[in-house]
Amino acid sequence: MDDCIFCKIINNEIPSTTIYEDDDIKAFFDISQVTPGHTLVVPKKHVQDIFAYDEDLAERVFKKVPMIARAIKASNPDIIGMNICQNNGEIAYQSVMHSHIHLVPRYSKDDDFSMHWGDNTGLVDNEQLQARADKIKQHLED
């Protein structure tokens, strides 16, 4: 897409600090560097979000994530963990509408990164949970 910042980075129209690239993906530092080493893994094919992936693209993109994550962790002995996030849609904090995976190295509980997971335990019963599961199962593709 002509106005997509990630497509421009992929096409080397905008400079980036690239740490890995092959025919399918480009991995480069997020300009915000939420924590040192914060990396984005981006498919070279423009897809808006996870819902636009076909099985082949998903395999080619996601299979590289562990390799890149291990390399980031191995590069700095101070890294004690890593968040891997993939946001889909504005409501889910996707700010660039070209699918991308964040690899956020973690150094301590005070490293200026946080996530909040609400606890809704007990708000629905097992029958309601099963009904939700059954509805999702109706839409699974083999």
From TrEMBL:
Entry keywords, A to Z: Methyltransferase, Transferase
Residue ranges of domain HIT in the record: 5-113
EC top class, as a word: transferase
GO biological process: methylation
EC number of this enzyme: 2.1.1.-
Gene Ontology MF: a single term: methyltransferase activity
InterPro entries linked: HINT, Histidine_triad_CS, Histidine_triad_HIT, HIT-like, HIT-like_sf
Transferase as UniProt keyword: yes
Motif extent (Histidine triad motif): 98-102
Protein's recorded name: HIT family protein
